[in-house]
């Protein structure tokens, strides 16, 4: 066990943030609610699912999300939710509805949701850079995965979740998947 002096040593702490300790996770965003999917992604990017988690060390994993153009909003959020940005100059406030942002770049909506769930510290941008969102089922990171894919789709007939995990999924993905499914889709947050 490491003593307090060893834990404060930057050289010791650096070993936890090496890219070799990172794993890759693939999510299919088809028929997923934006906030619910971001709730799955944020802890993986921070590394909270690892036993070696230290708040000030960037030891999170990389997450790839495909089919972001098929994300779903509940209620009237698509029409009335506003995304704001400011240029810094007087009168430089730009407001776009979720529908307008979704037409331009659906990945921006998911990245914004994940960004809101990450701690507001110096590591936020670096962590957010490991969230990779793509339109369609294809992505340029096939070497990292093989055929592993976590699909969190819902049945269109009754709206219940249809959790599918491929049989050849690695053990670390299976553990995260079993943790979230044991919570139950409605148990995470009642709307």
Largest sheet: 5 strands, mixed
Overall geometric form: globular
Could you list the spans in which at least 5 consecutive residues all have pLDDT below 50? 186-191
Enumerate how many helices there are, as a single number. Answer: 10
Report the sheet-strand fraction.
15-25%
Terminal CA distance: 43 Å
How many E-type strands? 7
Which class best fits the helix and strand makeup? Answer: alpha/beta
Helix content: 25-40%
Describe the oligomeric state of these chains in a short phrase.
Answer: single chain
What is the N-to-C order of secondary-structure elements (H for helix, E for strand)?
Answer: HHEHEHEEHHHEHEEHH
Arrangement of strands in the largest sheet: 5-2-1-6-7
Indicate the mean pLDDT: 82
CA radius of gyration is 18 Å
Summarize the structure.
Helices cover about 35% and strands about 20% of the residues. The protein is α/β, with parallel strands linked by helices and about 190 residues long.
Protein topology:
Layout: H1 4-7, H2 10-14, E1 24-28, H3 34-46, E2 62-66, H4 77-80, E3 82-86, E4 93-97, H5 98-104, H6 106-117, H7 124-128, E5 131-134, H8 142-145, E6 150-154, E7 161-165, H9 171-183, H10 185-188
Parallel strand pairs: 1-2, 1-6, 2-5
Antiparallel strand pairs: 3-4, 6-7
